[in-house]
Amino acid sequence: MLPVSTFPFARTTDEVKTNKWIRDNFIRFGTEIRHMEDSPRGVEAWKEHTTAFDRVRSIAEALDQARSAKYIAEEAAVSETTAHNHLKRLAEMNVIRTVADENATYYEPDPLYGRFRTLRGLIENHTHQELLELKADLQQQIEACQEQYEVHSPTDLRARATETETAAETMELIEDASDWQLSRYQLSILEDAIDNYEEYAAIDGRLHA
Amino acid sequence: MGVCTPNMYAFDGGHDPQQASHEALRQIREQLTRHPVITSVEGLPHDTVYKEIRADVDPSAIGTETPSGTLTVRWFVGDPTDPARFTFHYSDESGFDCGWHHHEQDHVDGFGHYQKRDGGNYVYEAFQFGSKEPARVVWEVLEELQTIVE
Lengths: 209, 150
Description:
The complex is a heterodimer. Chain A is mainly α. Chain A is 63% helix and 9% strand. Chain A has 10 helices and 4 strands, in the order αββααααββααααα. Chain A has a two-stranded antiparallel sheet. Chain A starts with 12 loop residues before the first helix and ends in a 6-residue tail after the last helix. In chain B, strand 7 (112-118) and strand 8 (121-126) form a beta hairpin. Chain B has helices spanning 17-34, 59-62, 134-149, and strands at 9-10, 38-45, 50-57, 69-76, 85-92, 97-102, 112-118, 121-126. A 7-stranded antiparallel β-sheet of chain B has the order 2-3-4-5-6-7-8. Chain B starts with 8 loop residues before the first strand and ends with a helix. In chain B, helix 1 (17-34) packs across helix 3. Chain B is built from 3 helices and 8 strands; from the N terminus they run βαββαβββββα. The chains are: A mainly alpha, B alpha+beta. Strand 3 of chain A pairs parallel with strand 1 of chain B, so a sheet runs across the interface.
């Protein structure tokens, strides 16, 4: 690794050549210039504390769009063959699902699996009354957003974020729109948990008071 | 479901930003729990339905005589064409306050930046994240934090 200060400004032909060599062989990661063959920051520690399967799963479960096995392999710091094998297992377990176009197969989180995982956490960790209180909180958050911005949906608020004068205002609206979206998603699962609490809790072998 | 079975879904870009934000935060929470410098993690405003993750950092793991500090994480997913925005912000009992953020701002080119409080204001510098996947960003930021605090 080279400290940032060794990244020279070019004044002579030799310095231009040196800069080109650095550009071709090094990349800036955060506060450091790193050789391209070095692992990106944090990856060595990540590998030390997790298995290849853990890393593939953690990338695949949080993808915000369908991605190829090659992309997931690079992000998870594993070989493409390893990624492919683990992705196949995760698809068989319904943790992720495959999507395809004419040319390739992609992977994305299985939305139903994610939803049931959250539902299970709600049933497992809360009484029926606590879920009702959480629902009231989320509804209050949504109503507060509607009143504050006088719009009906987070989509409307996101649209407004494109019309602001400063980056800070844009980010503030995007944050609130995202929180609103998240509240709606969580509320829909909470309602499912509340409506079917006794049945789910009985299936799970637990029944809170 | 197998990888190449006839049951594969058509490639329709089944993007749901609501669920993607939720899954990103859940994954960040899981990675923070696994990281050796983190002593505890909680979701806010509720530990089960949260929009923000707060993690306590073990001061002895990141430096000598370092005060106790807290890492606060937020993650926002929008349209598929829109980059994810996120903030990893650290502050400790001595008033040290800094963050690795990825979002619109007027101080440096691009989204990625490092900001640090200096007196009453923040100073900014560009920061290039090695990845924009939630799990990877957790480990990258915590390595940066260890480098800066040491």
